[in-house]
Design goal:
- This protein is of the alpha/beta class and 310 residues long.
- The chain has 2 domains: 130 residues, Nucleotidyltransferase, domain 5, CATH 3.30.420; 168 residues, ATPase, nucleotide binding domain (Nucleotidyltransferase, domain 5).
- Helices cover 50% and strands 20% of the residues.
- It is built from 13 helices and 10 strands.
- Helix 2 packs across helix 3, helix 9 crosses helix 10 and helix 10 crosses helix 12.
- It is globular.
Length: 310
């Protein structure tokens, strides 16, 4: 028999699933992060092979039994970057005298889109540490909105929310801005209670900016003026994502699935966003994803195999 392996790679963990050619799940396993632009291709190649071996050993398979391995991972949004990992992983396998028939790298957003709509047309809005929106129209053409990264993009994401909060806290410490509960909350949770400590944590200790987001949501529920302003402006940015995708897709209904805890869980941010969608993007219909990203990778692998056979 022949088998497929779909892999969803992220900045904190990597999830692999083994299926038969019909897509029936037989096994799943987890490994470490797979952002190769940060960790390097060798480290990620080790993680990938460990996951593939776990799948292979579960059914006592040989490598030749694996027809396709498709990875969707962080950092693979540009084809040139995806090909870098593809080529380096194949070189890594060659050094170990291993041969795998087909290996393909796609972006994590791409496999999430396929999974969310079972390969059919639709859109996903991802708001995690970063943000991006992908859509597939009825012609199968992929459209993208956002995804410009933390320096010039990622609006509506945990990083963007956290950055605005830290700016407000810095101004509060200095007396340049309005008083905000955020200053008290960050002191309680992270022991950051002065300008000096804030600067040290952000610029020397690689502070996780997005980790401040829960504090912003907490402060907004307490009707803190600064926190409310932040979630107002950030949800406005996500509305712009939806409107831009609506123009690209050009369908009567914009079907969207949310990916990322800040939108898929119930909180003051997601509730405000839902209210704005009803008022400002009335043709938008939000749905739960059909399948998780790792199964989206399986669906893409099935399509790749089908296309290769003509």
């Amino acid at each position: 028999m022949s088998y497929l392996i779909g892999i969803d790679g992220g900045g904190t963990k990597t999830h692999a699933v083994l299926t038969n050619l019909n897509g029936e799940k037989l096994f799943e396993c987890f490994g470490g992060p797979s952002n190769f632009l940060i960790l390097g291709t060798e480290k990620v190649s080790e993680t990938l092979l460990t996951l593939i071996d776990s799948c292979k050993n579960y059914l006592n398979l040989s490598y030749s039994d694996i027809s396709f391995v498709l990875l969707g991972t962080t950092g693979a949004g540009r084809r040139t970057d995806a090909e870098l990992l593809e080529n380096d992983f194949q070189s890594y396998l060659t050094l170990k005298n291993i041969s795998i028939k087909n290996f393909r790298v796609e972006s994590d957003a791409r496999v999430a889109l396929e999974g969310a709509f079972s390969g059919k047309p639709g859109s996903i809005l991802i708001a995690g540490t970063g943000s991006i929106m992908f859509g597939k129209d009825k012609e199968g053409i992929i459209h993208r909105v956002g995804g410009f990264g933390r320096y010039i993009g990622d609006e509506g994401s945990g990083y963007s929310i956290g950055k605005k909060a830290l700016t407000a806290i810095a101004k509060n410490f200095d007396g340049r801005g309005k008083k905000t509960i955020l200053s008290e909350l960050i002191a309680e949770k992270f022991e950051i209670a002065s300008s000096e400590k804030l600067i040290t944590e952000v610029y020397k200790n690689n502070f996780d900016v997005a980790s401040v987001t829960p504090l912003v949501l907490q402060a907004a529920e307490m009707m803190d003026e600064i926190a409310v302003q932040i979630i107002e402006s950030e949800t406005d940015e996500l509305i712009l994502h939806l409107k831009a995708m609506e123009e690209k897709i050009k369908e009567d209904v914009l079907s969207v699935a949310f990916i990322g805890g800040i939108l898929s869980s119930k909180n003051v941010y997601s509730e405000l966003f839902a209210t704005k969608i009803k008022r400002q993007v009335p043709n938008c219909r939000v749905k739960l994803p059909d399948y998780p990203p790792e199964y989206g990778a399986i669906l893409m692998a099935q399509t790749q195999l089908k296309n290769s056979k003509g």
